[in-house]
Amino acid sequence: MFRTNISRALFFVAGTVVFYSPLKAAEQAPAAVQVERGRQLFHKTFKSYSCATCHSIEGTGTAVGPNLKTLGSVVGPRGLYTTIMMSVTCYVQEYQLANGNTFRGIEKAKAGGTMEVWDLTKTPAELRKFRESEVTMKPNTTWKHPPTGMGLADQELADIVAYVKAVFTGTPKEVTVEELH
Ligand code: HEC
């Protein structure tokens, strides 16, 4: 009797696993599959850049551009898409050195009269160090965020957005192309 109950219980558990798991997996699959596509695209090189060339995520990539955590965890798909395809920048500046040379860059750190700036005219960006008194800054009018020229399809951008959101919210969720616009 005892044995039979155990085998019944086991049979029941096995049945639950067999019958319910595929269902659950099928429900979760579209989001998980899209997030995986987004992960691959984030690291894929288009026209000599990948997103990871300039953004660090899940412990890989180079933190040249802003940490995507803030936007990724707070802003919705449309907001993320809009910033990825931005035509106006807010951190990138035109730096002019005392010798007259100029370059487009983004500040990494500033301390004790010295500043570290990522030079965005180099591929990949190159970290340069200056005395603060050596440089003057002007708003950037020429540097364009590379994704605007990568030829990414809307579906690819939706996948990238789904990936970034999944990483920083902890919950994979499908993102449709319609949600971007
Ligand atoms: C050459 C370096 C570079 C590459 C490649 C690049 N980015 Fe950026 N990204 C930047 C910089 C620099 C900024 C800040 C621009 C500014 O001044 O507003 C930025 C800003 C952003 C922002 C807005 C962040 C914020 O807090 O304002 C998002 C989102 C973003 N990038 C996502 C991406 C994605 C996704 C890709 C790949 C499809 C990508 N970036 C490729 C350098 C890069």
Model description:
- The chain has 181 residues and is of the alpha+beta class.
- It is 40% helix and 18% strand.
- The chain has a five-stranded antiparallel β-sheet, with no helix packed on it.
- The longest helix has 42 residues.
- The radius of gyration is 23 Å and the shape is elongated.
- About 7% of the residues have low confidence.
- The protein binds heme C (HEC).
Order of helices and strands: HHHEEEEEH
Output the structural class.
alpha+beta
- Using the alpha-carbon principal axes, give the shape: elongated
**Distance separating the two termini:** 64 Å
Which small molecules are bound? Answer: heme C
Helicity level, as a percent range?
25-40%
Number of helices: 4
Under the CATH scheme, which class of the largest domain?
Mainly Alpha
**In the CATH classification, which architecture of the largest domain applies?**
Orthogonal Bundle
Number of strands: 5
What is the averaged pLDDT score? 89
Here the CATH topology of the largest domain equals Cytochrome Bc1 Complex, Chain D, domain 2
The structural domain count equals 2
| Unreliable runs | 8-19
Strand order of the largest sheet: 4-3-2-1-5
Largest sheet, if any? 5 strands, antiparallel
Q: What proportion of the residues form beta strands (DSSP E)?
A: 15-25%
CATH superfamily of the largest domain: Cytochrome c-like domain
Q: Give the C-alpha Rg.
A: 23 Å
